[in-house]
Amino acid sequence: MKTAYEKVQAARAKGRPSGIGFIKGIFTDFIELHGDRRFAEDSAIVGGIARLRNRPVTVIAMEKGGNTKEKVFRNFGSPNPEGYRVMEGIIVSYL
Asked: In whole angstroms, how far apart are CA 70 and each of 44, 48, 66?
């Protein structure tokens, strides 16, 4: 059993896949959707539509970025309020 410290180390490991990495590895035909058309786009949230085993699905992931420049652009994976509105809009638009 891992200690709490070991779990934190694993979560912060450099080689750990990112949200975009998981999307590329699991889904096909991913189309990223941007912005909520009200305020702004949140670069920490990646969302869109894709296919999983040839079925259409909605995909939402948090993205931290791989290097320092990407991490700053992605706000270190911390969504702003507009990011949550984007997630809500994506979910509602496909229900």
From this structure: 10, 20, 6
Provide the residue type at 52 as one letter. L
Confidence of residue 75 (pLDDT cuts 50, 70, 90): confident
Q: Are 60 and 43 in contact (CB under 8 A)?
A: no
Q: Which of 80, 32, 21, 77 is nearest to 59 (CA)?
A: 32
CA dihedral sign, ordered 39, 93, 88, 69: negative
Q: Could you tell me the pLDDT band of residue 93, with boundaries at 50, 70 and 90? A: low
Kindly give the pairing relationship between strand 28-33 and strand 45-52.
antiparallel
Secondary structure of the chain as H, E, C letters: CCCHHHHHHHHCCCCCCCHHHHHHHHCEEEEEECCCCCCCCCCCEEEEEEEECCEEEEEEEECCCCCHHHHHHCHHHCCCHHHHHHHHHHHHHCC
